[in-house]
Please model this.
Amino acid sequence: MRIEGIENVRRILCVFPRYTSSFGTFEYAYPLTDGVQAFMPPQGLLLIAAYLPEHWPVRFIDENIRAATAEDFEWAEAVLVSGMHIQRQQMNDICRRAHAHDLAVAIGGPSVSACPDYYPSFDYLHVGELGDATDELIARLARDPSRPERQIVLKTADRLDMTRFPIPAYELAEIPRYFLGSIQYSSGCPYQCEFCDIPGLYGRNPRLKSPQQITAELDKLLECGIMGSVYFVDDNFIGNRKAALDLLPHLIEWQKKTGYVLRFSCEATLNIAKRPEILAGMREAYFCTIFCGIETPDPVALKAMHKDHNMMVPIMEAIETLNSFGMEVVSGIILGLDTDKPETGQHLLEFIEASQIPLLTINLLQALPQTPLWDRLKRENRLIEDEGRDSNVDFRLPYEDVVTTWRACMGSAYQPAKLLERYEYQIRHTYPKRLQPPRSPQQTSWKNIKLGLTMLRNIFWKVGVLCDYKIEFWKFALRRLARGEIEYLISSILVAHHLIMFARDASGGHTNASYYSLKLQEASVPAE
Ligand code: SF4
Model:
């Protein structure tokens, strides 16, 4: 619901910062596609853009696609920025560039909400979710868009009910330029894993949109040119199990109506394996991938981090159950836990081989503000503020040993032959269990065929000819071609190529070992 009663017109520039190269942003896959340049449309900033008064002209720029130019800043009367901790340096850089044009800059989103202190230069800090602070910010900009004399902090006390959220302004983003579409149904998570800031930031009682809002958003994403997959960015898709069950029939209906042109993926806790009725609905709705924060295969470590819910079903059994509903599991893994031993890296590699999970995001433990982990490590005097380090945690094991283990695990897990073997397993065992929807006119359209041919050409040339793992590639690719599994070939290689190349950077010490690390890698700040 937009704020009403605003008469002045303000030109607002919304700028989303670049991501530092990371495992989960897939940038090595982009050159294999037909023009993808960024990971996912940013929900938060597009939501705010939709919430601004209808008569305010809004420009949205995702700096993962192109940098905001001097002309953009000259056009604007105020700038809005949003992002996560990993984008902190880039957000401060956008603020600096906006100030060079004497523009007021407001920052919102998860990073500033958790750590307002990170952003001393911004004119307005929007702390918390969409709500009364947003209305106050809009009212202030409407009255006077110039820079205030000192920083103003606006905190949301009264959050807008999610059923009143407008559809994010997807029309402002270049949706076909994104690797995945994104959508949000719920916010918050009932669990309290020690390292996680979600319950602190968004609450333990998940708030929800209505199923009708979700299908309307999907309609709009389609209108804006989305193809392929849409990711439910909810912190935990089954944070409210009844809500998930309520939504699924609407998604199934929508898929039938639109011809299954999209696949879905989501994040959920591993105990979803105990809910066959939810998994069956997800299969029917064409969920093909599920991200589970497995974190570690070590039960002692899971207990210590208060992630006991991962053990409600034995981990291997849970993975098999998800696979049996046609869903490939993607796993988050953390190294550097207090319970880690010198042999933890070896155990992780054994787990990867046994689970046959192709994609695992392996990160070093990082203590985020507003988490129980942060509080505990602060009490134990084990927080280290050093931007040259890959983690702010004083590990129990020597720091160098932990980083070396991380590099060794990345190097080994993503050797081309091993990774493609895991994809081979998924293609044989998991993908055949997926719903096999009838081919829709969109899928057999010339546009879609041309897209597939373009990606195949790129893959054959850039991987099959130019890459040094071409032998492993062709072994895998020829099997796919012989079986007519062209879609599997494309989808597996897009991701596998990124993982292989990124892991090489990682094991060579060219990337951060923590997703949240502040250690700046080159090229992470837009060059303007
Ligand atoms: S289950 Fe996931 S979202 Fe919920 S608290 Fe744990 S890590 Fe965070």
User: Anything to note?
Assistant: The mean pLDDT is 93. The chain is about 40% helix and 15% strand. Residues 486-507 form the longest helix (22 residues).
